[in-house]
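Side project, low priority. Logging it here so it doesn't get lost.
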Amino acid sequence: MPKHPTVPKVGFLSLGCPKNLVDSEVMMGILARQGYELTPHADEADVLVVNTCSFIAPAQQESVDTILEMAEHKKFGRAQRLVVAGCLVERYRAQIMEQIPEVDAVIGTGEVERILEAVRGDLQPLPAAVPDFLYHDGMPRVLSTPRHAAYIKIAEGCDHPCTFCIIPQLRGKFRSRRFESVVREAQSLAAAGVREITLIGQDTTSYGEDLGLRDGLPALLARLAEIEELAWVRFLYAYPNRVTNKLLETLAAHPRLAKYMDMPLQHASRNVLARMKRGSSGDAFLKLVERIRTTIPGVMLRTSFIVGFPGETPSDFEELCDFVRAAQFDWMGVFAYSDVDNAASYAQDGKVDTEIISDRRDKLMSLQRRISARRLKHLVGHTFPALVEGPSKDTELVWEARLEGMAPEIDGKLYLSDLVPLDGGPAARTGDIVTVEIAESHDYDLVGRVVAVQDALTASGAQAGIAQAAQAKVAPLRRVLTGAPLRVLS
């Protein structure tokens, strides 16, 4: 085991979605357990690790740019080794090693446990294989999220045949973590001061099917809702045809389960959905949205769409716009279609011009902005529980919080104008659950005033999180931004 002060410092950079983030946290945990020191500063690192994303073309380009940027640190700075990990490796393993000579080692999504070998320089190449790695609660993990929030990956891989997606190639077949492994990890995180847990996976609504569990996700959510230290439990990425009555009834029945659902629909035109191999139609989706809102009063819904998919006609796009007007989603993301060379859609005819795609994206987002503004305006004058996030990244003069219907990082924000409750009690702190009176609404964000502290983060929980980090020989971690357009885990 490396010994201080000769222990190499490792700098981690994680790109892409929360699923990548969890992989990075596991790799950092493996290194920390072996005595390696972690640093957020590339110019301080002896070894640099870039965990890449390759889901869509912009993410792939960002990954390549980041690798090249870190290669400059190796050529002219302190770094002696550069390791590339993640999805880009699954697609371009040989090309990375051949075309970027500064890269010393590559590990794919199924080789997370080999990060120690890669950092030490004794990684031996193995024959190509379908990724099958799946972390468990016994593995070390260094959190990079704020101390009060954490992600738990409950499944890996995907079996859906969506023509625009290469996740099955990058992550392998769908496989669920063991039920009790997830529960134990959630209990451990809660004991360390985590107030909110977000369950993630390519398709969380299929959780447990491969293990023979019936209604696996509802059962897991109900079990996690029993953990008293937690305030909120949410899950991301529901597949529409997997949203069952049992799931909706479970979300409605347990106060700790966030009244929130992220359900990527991708499109509303039957024609486009068929070419995507998603099936269904806008009419069926509208009925599903109505069923969700009827079963879970006050639920906030998020979805995402792809515009400019091959074969998308002007009438297909107008059908999508009409659907968005009818569905009235609280939050929505729109992706401009981009070709991925080994996705099935790459070979489809009817490609849409990039300028048309950009115009359609702008039009759909403009439509949603007006919808979001109207829906948020209805919240003004009412009080809601909120989770205090801490000082704003834009300015420390303003603090941020989130309502139950706002997922971390992807939805709007609640800006707090006053942190002192009316009863003269202590000011709210990061991680507290507070009651907020909404004073203003904007297109995507809210402004509110704290009127009471409902549930303060206990000192013991906060200290437990600090102690846990100290045992791993790193300071409590958080995500920060550097001057480059990338996220650094620190």
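Brief comment: The longest strand covers residues 446-455.
Revisit when time allows.
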